[in-house]
Amino acid sequence: MPIRVRLAALAALGALVLSSLGAVLFVDQLRGHLHTSVDSSLRVRAEALVQNVGDAAGGINFQDSGSTALLNEKEAIAQIVAPDGRVAETSQAAGAALVISPGTLHAAAIKTVYAEGHIPRDSHSVRFLATPVTRSDGRWIVVVGSSLASADDAVARVRTGLAIGVAIVTLASAIGAWLLSTLALRPVERMRRQAATISERDADTRLAVPTTHDEIAQLGVTMNALLGRLQNALVQQRAFVADASHELRTPLAILRTELELAAHPGRDIVELRRAIANAGDETDRLVGLAEELLFLARHDEDRTRDARELQPLRPLLERTADRARRNAQGRGADVSVLLDAPTDLAAGVVADDLSRAVENMLDNAIRHAPPASCVRLDARRDSHGIVISVSDHGPGFPFDFLSHAFERFRRADSGRASDDGGTGLGLAIVRAVARGHGGDAEARNLDGGGAQVAIRLPAD
Questions:
Q1: What is the pLDDT of residue 113?
Q2: pLDDT tens-digit profile of 389-431?
Q3: For the ranges 76-85, 200-209, 451-460, which has the lowest average pLDDT?
Q4: Average pLDDT of the chain?
Q5: Most buried of 7, 57, 228, 339 (most Cβ within 10 A)?
Q6: H, E, C per residue of the chain
Q7: Is 138 left (phi over 0), alpha (psi -120 to 50) or beta?
Q8: Which fold has domain 3-154?
Q9: Do domains 3-154 and 218-301 have the same CATH topology?
Q10: What is the domain partition of the chain in residue ranges?
Q11: Are the beta carbons of 393 and 374 closer than 8 angstroms?
């Protein structure tokens, strides 16, 4: 259901409830005021009859139709009830029967009471006042009444007018809410139409943000920021695919060439073995590249937060450092690895992922370290958390490369050659692991020469 329809319905419902409640209260107050006015008139009439009845202690003939009569035929509803309960005098409008209930009559013998009832000659309710009069021959009851026809008619007219008013207010509220919501949502609709026209090729397109500086303008700013992040991610994805294609094309081309040469007639056994060895090297390179790509893809989808386990870091770092030493010796690198980490240092980590990241840091340092030098692997706790760093004494990072060191397929050299065995994904994996643990990675050049890559893990 559209927002405009919901807002209009809510506004109409609210107006209906509030105006109906106000109308009910107003009618109740009006009825109360009209009854108060009727009661005042009844008291005036009752006082006159009470005076006359009280003065008739000598025995006035209640049936006297002359000037001494207490009631005349044109009097409004009125009765005088004797102490024995019979109607001693009544007006023509009241009739011969007692107009009030026995309960009301009994209460009126003690104090003045008000009651409502009916008489045969009036279809409307009648308001009665019954008050006692003490005489020497007993306690008489004076009853006066007034039809509520005028009050009921007035209340009915007001109720009809209020019902019409409530309907008008409800309809006006619905229309007003519809128009206001339409006006308020017009910028949203405009941004929606603009967003619908944006495609993945529109790298710099943004939504037109209204100048109202309100919540809708903030929504536009937020949407533009989201578009920027999505378009930046799309650009990075396209660059990643292009770089991956380039990285895969070179070893595949070499592999194809070696296989074609191996299949060429007339080649001796030495050449065949060399071709097969070269093909095996390129296959290993392809396998390594595929594994690194799969690792990064997994970390893009999963931050590994739920897989962490609290464990001591020094044994993990020792195993990683030993593996890095063996790899360096296998490549003929004359570089040693020195580990410095306290034995009581522990953290919640994914052991395999952290070991892989540290191993990449060590391999990167060993490839660029000068012969007979030492690569340091340090782990410590500071005020911000745990820092695991790898330092070397090599040439360091080029200055313009530092800000791109952790980008995928980014190498410090200007070319795309991979003679050093790297794929350009090692530091990208380091940063992916660090962020997967809630931390980050950083790279810098040391003051005395060399470079340092560090993983910072959160304190918890």
A1: 92
A2: 999 988 888 888 888 888 877 776 543 344 455 667 888 889 9
A3: 200-209
A4: 82
A5: 7
A6: CCHHHHHHHHHHHHHHHHHHHHHHHHHHHHHHHHHHHHHHHHHHHHHHHHHHHHHCCCCCCCCCCCCCCCCCCCCCCEEEECCCCCEEEECCCCCCCCCCCHHHHHHHCCCCEEEEEEECCEEEEEEEEEEEEEECCEEEEEEEEEECHHHHHHHHHHHHHHHHHHHHHHHHHHHHHHHHHHHHHHHHHHHHHHHHHCCCCCCCCCCCCCCCCCHHHHHHHHHHHHHHHHHHHHHHHHHHHHHHHHHHHHHHHHHHHHHHHHCCCCCCHHHHHHHHHHHHHHHHHHHHHHHHHHHHHHHHHCCCHHHCEEEEHHHHHHHHHHHHHHHHHHCCCCEEEEEECCCCCEEEECHHHHHHHHHHHHHHHHHHCCCCEEEEEEEEEECCEEEEEEECCCCCCCHHHHHHCCCCCCCCCCCCCCCCCCCCCHHHHHHHHHHHCCCEEEEEECCCCCEEEEEEEECC
A7: left
A8: Beta-Lactamase (3.30.450)
A9: no
A10: 3-154, 218-301, 305-458
A11: yes
Q: Which amino acid is at 410?
A: R
- The answer to whether 113 and 104 have CB atoms below 8 angstroms apart is yes
Q: What CATH number was assigned to the domain covering residues 218-301?
A: 1.10.287.130
User: What's the predicted TM-score (pTM) here?
Assistant: 0.52
- Calpha distance 438→447 (Å, rounded): 29
pLDDT recorded at residue 231: 79
Q: Which of 185, 188, 226 is closest to 209 using CA atoms?
A: 188
Nearest to 127 by CA among 31, 53, 62: 31
